[in-house]
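Narrative of activities, Objective 1.

The group set out to show that a structural description can be obtained from nothing but a protein's sequence at a throughput compatible with the screening campaign. Below is one input-output pair from the validation batch, recorded exactly as produced.
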Amino acid sequence: MDFKHGGLTLDANKRHPFFNEFRELIYALAIFGRFPFYKDAHGNVKYSLFSLGGLYWVVWYCTFMYAASGVLGESFAKIFAAARFDSTIGQARNVIVILNLILIPLSHLGEWQKLARYITEWDEFLVTYKYMTGNDLKIKLKAWVYTVLTIIPSLSLLASFTEQETLVIRNILQRLLYIMLFSGMSFVAMFWIMSHVVVQRIAVYLKGELMKLGVNSRNRSNVSAMEVHRLRYLWARATSLLHKSGECLGLSMMIISLTNSASFVIAAYGVIVGILEFNQEAVLHQSVNVVAGIAYIFAGTESGYQSTQKMGDDIMAALSAIDLSGINDVTSREINMFLQIMSLNPPIVTCAGVVTISRSFLTSVFSNTVTYLIVLLQFKTTDVEFNCNNETLTSILQKPEG
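Output recorded for this entry:
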């Protein structure tokens, strides 16, 4: 079956390169209640809450809300009943985990329609990319992405299970809740990062082609205006998809970052308390959770930063290196137009338009978490001083006279 799209004749069976490359990841999102999609007659990804996938999500969400309510209630009861916060570190992390479970699926409700369109637009773009470049864009899951977003969360999950008495995850349903939560977060973050990796590979291709044009201009060889126009078109389409990544998954990633920041603070505090109390088991457990929290925040932020850097500054530098004195007026106007479009429509990634992803955002997140950690440590210091003074006063009062 053939049909027309953008002046090209495309084969319906071969026009889904993005979906085919990410097939396992997209189906994993559906299984873990993150994306209830279906495919229409043409194979395009669609979303409807009133579909089999939507029904599965409703059952999934209600089941785990039932399980989460028991865990959340017991965790809050232990926190309020405890005399010191030190003894409720596990419950505090538990509350963060459950809030993550509640908020992220709700945030998906506003993102699913955009995510379905996003996947379809990627399919259309990659077909166009092959037509305009003559090559397929190969996409493979990077080893570091797999490590950061699979192995580290798995270790964190195991660390949580070893604290089962503290974290109130004693039955099978509650354990399954944790597995679904950690896996769901990992798959959402993987999709976010890998969509940025595709943009980065397109940026590498564009930079290489522009550098060739720069060499030709300095050698007074022919620089085609059509070639510049082709590269500008590909850049504009890829930049648009980069912007839309923040629209379709930005809110979920922001919630993941915030909850992992809170989890990082609590886990780091747990490490310090464990060191002060010579509790090696607590230090080991909480250290794994510290690494997991940092990994989630860093991986999601760094992928967005690298995409904006390669699609922005790197392309701008390659364009600026073209010698305009050695080319004709038409090509010169195309290059100037390219530069103006880049200035007016910079390649940035935002979390649902709320914050712009950059390394400054990463440093601000960590500076805030360190501030909260210092506040917790001040409470710990005050508590230790109070206990010392209380013990000293008690020993003085109990000391016999004479």
